[in-house]
Every structure is written in C-alpha cells, then in structure tokens.
Design goal:
With 71 residues, the chain is mostly loops. Helix content is 0%, strand content 0%. It has no helix or strand. The termini are far apart.
Length: 71
C-alpha cells in the first residue's frame, strides 16, 4: 500500500487525531511523527537547479597522487 500523508496538530495533552483516512479497519499500521513547524521555509529545496556547470579540464585525472598502485 502507498504511504498516506496527513498533517495534524498535537493537543496539549499529547493526543493526536487523524481524519480522512482510507478504510484501514483491522490493519496494522506504522506511524511516524515529524515536527513540520521547524522545517526550512525558504522554499529552496534544490538551490543549484537551473545554474550552469562548467568543466575546466574534464578528462584530467582526479586525485592521481593519492593512488599507490604505481609504486
């Protein structure tokens, strides 16, 4: 079954009530709680998306002096 995502507010006594769930009567489910009030709200999930990339020497060896196979 696919995951179902709902947002709800925990009451002062620590009770959490979820509404509008599909028919899951008798099913064993796993519940995960995440504090979404402290999420990064700047809206930039992928800050480098759309920026250009330039490879200066794309075929040069990387970390060539860290290999000891030639010794």
């Amino acid at each position: 079954m696919a995951s179902i995502r709902r947002e709800a507010v925990v009451s002062a006594d620590g009770t959490l009530v979820l509404h509008d769930l599909p028919d899951l009567a008798g099913c064993k489910v796993a519940v995960s709680v995440e504090d979404v009030s402290k999420r990064d709200t700047n809206g930039e999930r992928y800050p480098l998306r759309g920026t250009s990339v330039r490879y200066i020497r794309p075929f040069d060896a990387v970390a060539e002096d860290e290999w000891n196979a030639n010794e």
